[in-house]
Amino acid sequence: MNETIKSNAGSSWSPFIVKFFIGSVLLSLMVYAKFYLHMRFYDIWVALFKILSIDLWFVGYNTLQQALTEVNREPIPIVKIGTYLSMFISFLFLFAVNPILFLISRKKLNNYRLEQKEPLAIVRIGYFISFAILIAIPANTIASAIALNSHFEYFKKISAELKYQRVDVKSELWKIVFKAQQYYILPVEEGGGGKSFTKNGKPVSLNDLGFEERTSLGRFILYQQKSDTTLYLYFFGNRVSSRFSYSDPNIVNVVENKVTIYPSDFKLE
Amino acid sequence: MKYLLWFFAGCVCIGIPFFIGYDQHDMWNSVFGGMIGGTIFLVLLYFFVVRKELTAKWKIIIAGLFTFHILAFAAFTVTSYRMSMLQRGNLYEVRSYSIAMGMVGGGIYARGWNMLHLYYEQPAGKEKSFVDVFKTYYGEKIRNGIFFESPNALEGTYVTFHGDSVVQLVDASGDAFAQGIRSDFANINGLTGKIQYTTTMSKHGVTYERNN
Description:
Chain A is of the alpha+beta class.
């Protein structure tokens, strides 16, 4: 317990400085609310949330919004200077104003202790608020980062699944559909069915069309029912669908598609 | 007064990298600039104020708090950035896929099927060659060797006839997001790295090949 308390007694700084910083914090919040929330002063919680999280959610949203505009071939909107300013205030508050406020109030409390005086309420309040911000905000931020990171992996998975479902499987289905329709049109002497989906009296098979039943994407089944002018193509994927049941998350759906092939049309289900 | 100077130092330390990264369209440079500036400022504040003026116990506590503060915001910034880039990349990919799927499903397959249908539906005794059938139905849409689906179409299909039996069509996208498999591929339309398909049609059937 040989700890020494460095005193700053007799220095020129006074409670005025503490008041000044609290005032700057409030002023920053007001400027932020004016610039960013368009004078919605009543919505102070939103402003607080934004200022304490540097509003990175907005930056992410803005990036996506701009990408959407870009792919729609529309002019990319300009980020308002007010948005930049409010973000700068966030950085300033979190990395400069609040730590300085904390240090000032901490030192002030030390001085009061040495002088055996009762600390001013404003110093105590300033100390506790700045201390809480220094602990709670990073804790909340790191929790958000962890949550976002788990979403990142999930989004990556979803993206791969969507490509599988909507591009890889669909293009393979289309190839089979087109090949079957071509088979229907081509005469028998050209290797077709001569206006029929049959070959030697039997329904045309995937092998006849040059496809395999089992592929890296999954299993394709081509079959016919009563009519020789209609084919049914069934696909069972080897991956789980990105469709998610909120009522029961344990339910997993395998990617599957059914296509009804007509001579000049098809229906994908 | 000293702390007021530190406040102004903070404005400079954070403000310079933050506003250097200013971009009318992209805020990420400024975010990273602000993070770097903020980190530098906290380190300076620690070494020039905390270490000199506070007790050993508080030096350790504040070092921990500042480190936690910096790491938390750095982690959140990097994660948010990665997420945004992933979402933006996905959007570009979806656009590229839809172009490729649209080219195949919307035009190429339908055209091939239609040509075969037209050829084999010709009245008996008045059969024309495959190329003649193509020219009869699509000839008006060909200008300077390029086939335009509609008069106002911006992009066309490059047509080549081989004798009177084979028609070859090359479709290349001009869309900025239509990225093909190889980025250095020289497309027929003079662009580089775009999606391109070649269709070969004859009375024996239609074949497709994705060139890029």
